[in-house]
Amino acid sequence: ISTERLHTIQNYYVPATQDRNSPLLNPVDQSYAAYPITLLQVGDYELLFDDSIRFYQMLRKQRHCVYLQVISGLPHCWQFFAKKYAPGRVSVQQASQFLNQHF
User: Fold this and answer.
1) What pLDDT score was predicted for residue 1?
2) What is the per-residue pLDDT across 9-68, written as a single tens digit (0 to 9) for each?
3) Which of 36, 59, 78, 83 could join 64 in a cystine, given CB atoms 3.0 to 4.6 angstroms apart?
4) How far apart are CA 75 and CA 64, in angstroms?
5) d(Cα 87, Cα 74) in Å, to the nearest integer?
6) Among candidates 101, 44, 100, which has minimal Cα distance to 76?
7) Are 91 and 82 in contact (CB under 8 A)?
8) Bridge partners for 43 per DSSP
């Protein structure tokens, strides 16, 4: 995902009428009384890499059960290509194992 793409899709997530500086729009700045057990998978070429790490750290600090997988050399949403891309298959299998183990 590129910065340009984020700018073109932002209105799908946040209407233009919404204050984009609202703290309610940033999950890292929230306090969660309860949060489900979570697996975060992030590639180190991901545009949202730093946000993913901060979100993981924030959940851990709030004592929620969260797991983080950082996969070297992968971009945003590599799992979408699991049918033809081995790292995608491995990540989807790991996510499936996580779900089967915890739910």
Assistant:
1) 67
2) 888 888 888 888 888 888 888 999 999 999 999 999 998 899 999 999 999 999 999 999
3) 59
4) 26
5) 8
6) 44
7) yes
8) 71
Q: What is the largest CA-CA distance in the chain?
A: 42
Distance CA 45, CA 99 (A): 25
Q: pTM value? A: 0.82
Region of residue 27 (phi > 0: left; psi between -120 and 50: alpha; otherwise: beta): alpha
* Residue 50 Cα distances to 3, 46, 82, angstroms: 14, 9, 24
**Nearest 10 degrees: CA dihedral of 89, 95, 99, 102?**
140
Pair 90, 64: CB distance under 8 Å: no
Query: Token pair 């995608």 is at which residue?
Result: 88
Tokens of 91: 């990540």
Q: Which residues contact 83 (CB under 8 A, 6 or more apart)?
A: 89
Rg of the chain on CA atoms, in Å: 15
The type of residue at 102 is H
